[in-house]
Fold:
Amino acid sequence: MLTEDRIFVRKGRMSMQKPDGTDSVPAVPEDGTLVERECCPPPEAGFSLERITYWSQGLKVKGFLLRPLQTSPAPGLVYCRGGIRRVGMVSMARILPLARRGFAVLAPFYRGNEGGEGREDFAGDDRYDVYAAVRLMLQLPEVAGRKVPLIGFSRGAIMALLAAAECEGAGPVVAWGGVSDLRLTYEERVDLRRMLRRVVGHPRKQPEEYIRRSPALWAERIAAPVLILHGTGDSQVGVEHARRLAQALEAAGRPYAMELYDGMGHVYTEQALEAAVAWIRRHGSG
Structure:
């Protein structure tokens, strides 16, 4: 449960004035503008946990900001969750290990979730929620650095790689068990086809939507260093996604590395976590 201790920053939308001094149509706040910070009970001593509300495309979206109290300012990091709606929702088990390693972690819930406005659409317009999170992190006094690394797990890898391609200040990136070709996901995951047709469209009728969500098809746009982590036993996002992304980055001459874990499934492991943190520290936050 949240406490009643709330730090209010902004409520409602800004308005512009006409020359006669009367209000005109409210202006949409810039993406990444903070709306509200709600203090929550931390998962353990020595950390601060806040439920953040910020603007993204005129929507109020939400996420968790977890940071160590001993290090201030702390290097920032955006964690891009996988799944959709309640499936794969942000958990302390995913972000606390990163905060324990000294990072201030912002984990967006994506629009339409946990009281946020709008509707999540599987790396469609909800990608702007990640871009706005990067911009927000670059403004927070508790966060250090001129770059914001991203870790994208599962379909969150699409979000992180889109940010690296389209959002200033984003990178380096870790694609962990990540989707790199959404058409391949449609072919592999029969159980997801109904959701994909409803949210994204049919791959034959809306091919452009699948291309836009497939980093392996536009790897030349990704300038930030990318670490690919994948288990060869992953039955939810097959290892072929990792290989296609690596081949595309190689062909585009982009900096990357890949670590494949023999027999590992679609899981969050200590070994992969250490590799991700080492990659981020090696390539710095600017």
